[in-house]
Amino acid sequence: MEHITLLLAIVIVTALVFDFTNGFHDTANAMATTISTGAMKPKAAVAMSAVLNLVGAFLSVEVAKTISSGLVREDGIQPEVIFAALVGAILWNLLTWLVGLPSSSSHALMGGLIGATVASIGLSGVNGGVVVTKVLIPAVAAPLVAGIAAFLAARLTYKLGKNAGAQSSAKGYRAGQIASAGLVSLAHGTNDAQKTMGIITLALVAGGALAPGSNPPVWVIVSAGLAIALGTYLGGWRIIRTMGKGLTDLQPQQGFAAQTSAAAVILASSNLGFSLSTTHSCSGAVMGSGLGRKGGVVRWSTATRMFVAWGLTLPAAGLVAAGAEFVARQGGWGVAAVAVFLVVSCAAIWLISRRQVVDHHNVNEADGPAPGAETPAGSEPAGVVASALAVVTPPVPGPPAEAVDADAKPTIPAQAGAAAESARPAGATV
């Protein structure tokens, strides 16, 4: 019993760490468009989002019940399984944050839980019907529904405001963006904070501290809300840059349409108990609003990398969790080994991220080409993945500057100088 109590404490702390990473990973969902259009200053935006995430955590427990008693069987699940699931989810969150890709923290958690459960007791431990109806179907439907809604909303806003002055219209929509961003933050709290509540409740049931089918205790709700709020306040600036500048260039009208559509989809899913990915909803809404403006474009190279990350989230987190579960089930030394692996991996990812810092000072700077690369006219800027890889890849050695032949002639003439020569009257001297 003493070992179980210690293990439960480790699981609860790890769950709150996941909740923290979920907060800064998903800040972009609510605030990326608001920051990119200049409706709010970056630090003020994330502070508002943090407060509303905390409030949203107290509004409903339907999603928490889906996680704690619907996705996997409560009987037969040990605390080691939940610990391993959290390890897989945390590492996936941090890896996708490092390269600035918006991926689903929700699916990382559920993939980790499914992978660890299968490794522990087999496929019989997973409720396949719940996975299909409340996880997979919403994962496909959410970005489509949010994208179509945002596309139509953006078209409507431009049509209704075509006779209004550009300056006054932009000012009004910026105010609307602040309100809709607050709604998305509130919706995020009602959906994502509950996932951690559900996983802690499942751990308490598995450890014998709660009866099966119990609702999350009040202290679980409070701690989960505070953890996600703190993570949100720190801001996942890399992902905010991708959502705000990497997918498309948004005007205030489009930002308002995207956030309103995403909030409607997330709040509806929370009431139905669907464990929806707010990342999928918000990313779909951003792309839909990007296409909703005449002449607007979506950078499909970045979108494609994002879609690939979405597809990899469940299996990748599941595989890492399955491996962690195999080690953790060996006993106390196994749990300690997995914990050390998690801490070392998190520290390594953070150190790599320090090579190219993205924060509230440079979050609105669009990604440029990779160092040393030229961007052809009309092409998309280098994606976030290419930029991140360029940072961690050592430069190719070349000849020192002193070794360059001083008599070498340029292959491309200086066009400015040539133009000046042709414009100079004949016989003129310098």
Characteristics:
mainly alpha, 430 residues, 70% helix, disordered C terminus, 0% strand
What does this structure look like?
- The chain contains 15 helices and no strands.
- The chain is an all-alpha fold and 430 residues long.
- It has one domain.
- The longest helix has 41 residues, at 166-206.
- The radius of gyration is 25 Å and the shape is globular.
- The model is unreliable at 368-430 (pLDDT under 50).
- It comes from Streptomyces luteolus.
- Keywords: Membrane, Phosphate transport, Transmembrane, Transmembrane helix, Transport.
- It is a multi-pass membrane protein.
- It holds the Pfam family PHO4.
Total number of distinct structural domains: 1
| Count of DSSP strands | 0
Query: Alpha-carbon distance between the termini?
Result: 93 Å
- Low-pLDDT segments: 368-430
- Binned, the helix content reads over 70%
Overall 3D shape:
globular
Structural class: mainly alpha
What is the mean pLDDT? 77
InterPro entries: Phos_transporter
Pfam family, one: PHO4
Subcellular location: Membrane
Membrane topology: Multi-pass membrane protein
Task: Give a brief outline of the structure.
With 430 residues, the protein is mainly α.
